[in-house]
Design a protein that fits this description.
Layout (H helix, E strand, L loop, with lengths): L4 H7 L2 H20 L19 H12 L2 E2 L9 E2 L7 E2 L5 E6 L2 E6 L10 E2 L6 H8 L11 E4 L2 H10 L17 H9 L12 E4 L7 H11 L11 H4 L8 H12 L1 H7 L17
Parallel strand pairs: 3-6
Antiparallel strand pairs: 1-2, 4-5, 7-8
Helix pairs in contact: 5-9, 5-10, 7-9
Length: about 280
């Protein structure tokens, strides 16, 4: 939860940096609005002991670093004393199972004497692991990179990737055509309004969020008919290529997105490129 300024600068990943700052702001506001008003009142649960921002932050860090989220980051966390002594692995040799009256940690396979007991803390991204547990997993298939969708970013990525059109010229992407604007709006990547959500994700089992894949396919399409009648399920799926003319520029653009984002200041942590080109 807490990082010194030097550590934040070394991370160079805005989503984590912003989350650290957000938590710090919440602690400060809660201390001023709630904690500072408790001493001397009947509602004081600390029996007159002063609890400041640092004390509250320490307590929250103790809890979050020991809380299990085996059902994912959105599900409620649980404190499991003694069980929380086990370290994390995405290939654990133990698991937590329900038993009458509570839960138990049981072996998933034969464990040798002296071998450490390993649990999976859940299907969590490296952002989450770093913020709550203080480490990252190098080969995390659940990891994600958050990017803000920007047509200029996609254009720069296509240029960096050397994407070319059917005639062999460098591909010049544009969202100026009304049908392309409509395509992006359907995906929530343009047009404003309550449905607009410009955050897209790279990484994880699908590698590319379906909306981003569908958006790039629309931008590199020559004709509206190539994408107009297709659903997000089709446009956002790697194993349903439209045609070679569309897919080659699409791959060239997407594979450079993390690199270009870093150069433009978004600084994502590069995701694994496993699976690129499988549908071209």
């Amino acid at each position: 939860m807490f990082f010194p300024r030097e550590a934040l600068e070394a991370i160079e990943y805005p989503p984590v940096v912003e989350q650290v700052k957000k938590r710090g702001r919440w602690l400060h506001r809660f201390s001023l609005d709630v904690l500072s008003k408790l001493p001397g009142t009947a509602a004081d649960p600390f029996d007159g002991v002063t609890v400041d921002t640092n004390s509250l932050g320490w307590a929250l860090a103790v809890v979050t670093s020991r809380a299990f989220r085996v059902a994912g980051p959105a599900a409620p966390a649980a404190l499991l004393p003694l069980i929380d002594m086990a370290n994390h692995s995405f290939e654990p040799n133990c698991e937590v199972v329900p038993v009458p009256g509570g839960v138990a940690m049981v072996a998933k396979k034969q464990i040798a004497v002296g071998e450490p007991l390993l649990l999976s803390y859940g299907r969590l991204s490296n952002d989450f692991l770093l913020m709550d547990y203080g480490f990252v997993s190098p080969d995390n298939e659940h990891d994600r990179v958050a990017l803000r969708f920007d047509i200029e970013l996609v254009k720069a990525a296509a240029l960096t990737g050397g994407a070319r059109d059917a005639s062999g010229k460098l591909l010049e992407l544009s969202a100026a055509a009304p049908w392309r604007q409509q395509h992006l709006a359907k995906l929530g990547l343009s047009g404003g309004g309550a449905k607009q959500n410009l955050q897209v994700l790279l990484g994880g089992p699908n590698f590319v969020e379906p909306r981003l894949l569908a958006a790039v396919r629309g931008l590199v399409a020559t004709y509206q008919s190539e994408v107009d009648a297709l659903t997000l399920e089709v446009l956002g799926s790697w194993d349903r290529p439209l045609n070679k003319q569309n897919e080659v520029p699409r791959i060239a653009g997407l594979k450079e997105s993390p690199v270009v984002a870093a150069r433009k200041g978004q600084k994502p942590r590069p995701a694994s490129k496993k699976g690129f080109g499988s549908s071209s």
